[in-house]
Amino acid sequence: MGFLLHTSSDHFLFISCCSSDRTPSEIERFSCERFSCDRFSCDRFSSERFSCERFSCDRFSCERFSCERFSCERFSCERFSCERFSCERFSCERFSCERFSCERFSCERFSCEGFSCERFSCERFSCERFSCERFSCERFSCDRFSCERFSCERFSCERFSCVRFSCDRFSCERFSCERFSCERFSCVRFSCDRFSCERFSCVRFSCDRFSCERFSCVRFSCERFSCERFSCERFSCERFSC
């Protein structure tokens, strides 16, 4: 088991859970509703490393964070300061102050060759993961991204051409509305059996996954959702009632 840690607007870190022998005092440092001991536990994150504003005791449990992945020495910038992150994986060479300087990202994952654009310039990102060939649309243009991760095979469509959404990830049958058109999506994640055209109509959502009875209040009104979309199996009327 594991979870994804959102490190930036476009990056996630997968954390696999395992047993740990943290002391009770450490457990008290990291424990909260979001990251409780019974939810996360591994040797990657130690309470000693996470003791800042973002990773405070009441948010994370000791058992989860105690490894060599995050050390104070790796992060030293506005978002990732040494007080928040520390480990061999994230050294100051990869993540420094402004947000991500070229000195920070110069490894296999983030090399200067990977990113080159207004948002991700070579000074901030660089690597074989992002190639210009993959990003070539309005949002992800060649001058912004370039790598093997984002290849045309994974992302392709009118809105996202060889960029974010490709055929093997999104299927046309799932999305067919103003926001999600059949031409844009076609993939495994959003397959017909999960998001079919019937579910996602121009209204926004429609299908057997959500029932109208649940979503017919101020936030989820019938005008926005159709009865066939929201079923009581996932969303009960008690939570979303008129």
Automatic annotation (TrEMBL):
It comes from the Eukaryota. This is Uncharacterized protein. It comes from Cyclopterus lumpus (Lumpsucker).
